[in-house]
């Protein structure tokens, strides 16, 4: 008798556990359907726009230096080199007002002793200076950057750095590019919605991706954006991420 009673109670407990499980499963299923339905009320797309640009500003820097065991002699030599550099660039068609000479940098090198360590005795002084040109005359300054080492023939210890090519109207262009990228995102979203038998609603969220300014025909990208200054011809790419309602 007691055994049958215990068995009945056990069956009731098992039945309650199963019933509770079904209720929980049904609740989860309903919630899942709600989330899926909710997810279908919007669509997230990425839009992009590209445009080719030509740099309209060049920045070029040259470097020259002089060495001597006597500081005054090193300065005199550097001053003579600066005058030669200025004359050379003016003769190449650069206005004197466009030449920017930086402050003189002085480095002191000391004599080594027999143990391979420095002493307090000065070996020589190395004085250096840079000259920079910022100009819209791209071709002219590019040519100068390639040929400025001719100054070596005039006794000037001169080095020419690679010019930087910049685009000064970038701020205005970015606004246009973002508008074009947003339009592209809407066209993509509209196509997806129509193919799914739905109608596209309004924009609910948008954020701008990083701008990529790369050499022409380059496939290079970066999560932090690229701002190329090495090439005259460039390509700018704008990206936006948009969320639209689905009716």
Order of helical and strand elements:
HEEHEEEHEEHEEEE
The fold-level CATH name of the largest domain is: Alpha-Beta Plaits
What coarse outline follows from CA principal-axis ratios?
elongated
Radius of gyration: 36 Å
Mean pLDDT: 86
CATH C-level of the largest domain:
Alpha Beta
Q: What fraction, in percent, of the residue positions are helical? A: 25-40%
Structural class: alpha+beta
Tell me the domain tally. 3
What can you tell me about this protein's structure?
The protein is of the alpha+beta class and 247 residues long. It is elongated, with a radius of gyration of 36 Å. The longest helix has 38 residues, at 2-39. It contains 4 helices and 11 strands; from the N terminus they run H-E-E-H-E-E-E-H-E-E-H-E-E-E-E. A hairpin with a 5-residue loop joins strand 4 (105-112) and strand 5 (118-135). It has helices spanning 2-39, 71-91, 138-147, 170-195, and strands spanning 42-54, 57-68, 99-101, 105-112, 118-135, 157-160, 164-166, 200-208, 212-215, 226-227, 233-246. The strands form 2 sheets. Strands 2, 3, 4, 5, 6 and 7 form a 6-stranded antiparallel β-sheet that branches. Strands 1, 8, 9, 10 and 11 form a 5-stranded mixed β-sheet that branches.
Name the features.
alpha+beta; Translation Initiation Factor IF3; five-stranded mixed β-sheet; 4 helices; 11 strands; elongated
